[in-house]
Specification:
It comes from Acidovorax carolinensis. This is DUF4178 domain-containing protein. It is built from 3 helices and 31 strands. The chain is mostly beta strands and about 500 residues long. The chain folds into 2 domains: about 200 residues, no CATH class; about 160 residues, no CATH class. An 8-stranded antiparallel barrel has the order 7-8-9-10-15-14-13-12. It has an 8-stranded antiparallel barrel with strand order 22-23-24-25-31-30-29-28. The radius of gyration is 25 Å and the shape is globular.
């Protein structure tokens, strides 16, 4: 039988587990560690000898559709490479718990499929071309270069390995905190710097859709034990059911307490009470199609904003939408209208003045700059949401859509999207009986829904200029000439390290 020259010869290595004697197999020559599937012993490979290091903690059941030995295909540098998931690592950081899958590629190398926030990022180890500075040298929002390409520092924080399964690359010590830094480029690339290794491990890649990976061998949906996702509210005792595998926070339907799922269902649950309920206009669980994608409303949060130096607050609402193959999006309801946005993988380039930002070849102009605070939440969320969470926000706008930046102490998140007409929202969720309640200012001249003549654009510009002058004279303020109660175009999204 002829051998395919494009497929490298692989020599599998198998040896008995030092803990229980069960066979432990290594498919990749780059794998140094493995977790015995029988006794959970962590073993390290040194030549032909396996040494037991200790026992690995049990996996936190995140109800992922992925599992060991699932296989798929990834396009890298124009090549279509098959891969198999041979290892699984679970990490816990300040943003919650996430999973990284060790992917064994056909060319014999290892890659990482990061799974979190309803999204997936496929990365491969790279040589950064220089020694990485200590993590403390990276500052949120600053720019650095990897192999001559500029990246923005999007996340810095700490994490720890809490569990692992299967065949793995070199592991950081179990439960020991280490630094993580995440960089993002203007064209959507992600670079993760993992200080759990010496020297730090550097990987680069892009976001991927699960459906594009052509995966086979996934978990059977019908095999999930839904009872395992039910528990009693720690505050009032009412039954609470978690619908989504990726949820890190859920609210009780009876008392509206915010419940953290950080330790997994069945672990120690933390809860916080909420007063003064805010009722969403679109009920949780509602299903609707927007921009050709079917969505379900799984979460709702109300937020308040205030411009620096101003004491006038304004509010808006954000509906968290979920699609099994597309992940999450935000339907934003403000006095300026409706908009649909999603977190970006890449990091737009912010002008030195902060008055504009460029993303995917389009320049967006700053419209609002303000401090935002979450005041009420309902439903499920893929990040650790808390009442009182604060971020610094900037909203930008262009003829092609919307762009929003949210900055916390450890992270910068960008979101992009488009404005929607009120009737679009009404029809999408079949809420004709609430048409008047859902009516907002529909998209104006910034959104290119139809062609506008030059004369119309000039007339609009002149009218806006006159209004700005009048309002500026009336206010007597040296700050921005106007601001309506428009909220964030985006939504809070936490993430970091391979997320």
């Amino acid at each position: 039988m002829a051998t395919d020259p494009t497929q490298p010869t692989q020599r599998y290595y198998r040896a008995p587990c030092p803990g229980c004697g069960a066979p432990v197999e290594f498919k990749s020559a780059q794998s140094t560690h493995a977790v015995c599937g029988y006794c959970q012993s962590t073993v390290v490979r040194s030549g032909e000898v396996l040494t037991r290091l200790g026992k690995m903690a049990e996996l936190f059941d995140d109800h992922s559709p992925l599992q060991l030995m699932a296989s798929g295909r990834i396009n890298i540098d124009g090549k279509d490479l098959p891969f198999t998931l041979i290892g699984r690592l679970q990490y816990k950081g300040d943003a919650g718990v996430w999973t990284e899958w060790a992917a064994f590629l056909q060319d014999g190398t290892l890659a990482t499929l990061g799974e979190d926030n309803g999204a997936y990022v496929f990365t491969r180890p790279i040589d950064p071309g220089r020694d990485m500075p200590e993590a403390a040298r990276f500052r949120i929002g600053t720019t650095t270069a990897i192999n001559g390409k500029p990246y923005s520092v999007a996340y810095t924080g700490q994490a720890q390995l809490i569990s692992a399964q299967g065949e793995l690359p070199k592991l950081p010590p179990l439960g020991q905190l280490f630094d993580l830094v995440e960089l993002r480029s203007a064209d959507g690339e992600v670079v993760s710097i993992d200080y759990g290794h010496t020297p730090p491990g550097v990987e680069r890649g892009k976001a991927v859709l699960l459906e594009d990976l052509q995966l086979t061998g996934l978990k059977d949906e019908s095999a999930k034990d839904e009872k395992g996702r039910q528990f009693n509210c720690p505050h009032c005792g009412a039954p609470v059911q978690v619908q989504l595998a990726t949820s890190k926070t859920v609210t009780c339907g009876s008392c509206a307490s915010i419940i953290s799922l950080d330790s997994g269902v069945g672990g120690e649950l933390r809860s916080a009470q909420q007063d003064e309920p805010v009722r969403p206009i679109i009920p949780l669980g509602s299903k609707g199609q927007l921009q050709g994608v079917p969505w379900q409303v799984v979460g709702f949060q109300h937020r308040m904003g205030v411009e620096p130096g101003d004491d006038e607050h304004f509010g808006w609402s954000e509906y968290l939408l979920y699609n099994q193959k597309r992940g999450f999006a935000f339907l934003v309801d403000s006095e300026e209208g409706w908009s649909l946005v999603r977190p970006t993988t890449g990091a737009p380039t912010l002008a030195a003045s902060g008055r504009s930002a460029t993303y995917m070849g389009t320049t967006y102009q700053l419209k609002y700059s303000y401090e935002a605070e979450t005041t009420y939440v309902l439903g499920e969320f893929y990040w650790q949401v808390e009442r009182g969470q604060k971020t610094s926000n900037r909203d930008f706008e262009s003829s092609k859509g919307l762009l929003s930046m949210e900055q916390s102490k450890s992270e910068i998140t960008w979101s992009s999207g488009d404005k929607l007409a009120s009737d679009t929202v009404v029809k999408a969720f079949k809420l004709e009986d609430k048409k008047d309640v859902l009516q907002r200012d529909d998209p104006g001249p910034f959104v290119a829904k139809s062609g506008l003549g030059c004369g119309t654009i000039i007339l609009i510009a002149v009218i806006i200029l006159i209004l700005l002058i009048i309002l500026g004279n009336c206010s007597g303020s040296s700050g921005s000439g106007y601001r309506s109660s428009g909220g964030s175009f985006g939504g809070y999204s936490s993430g970091g390290g391979h997320k």
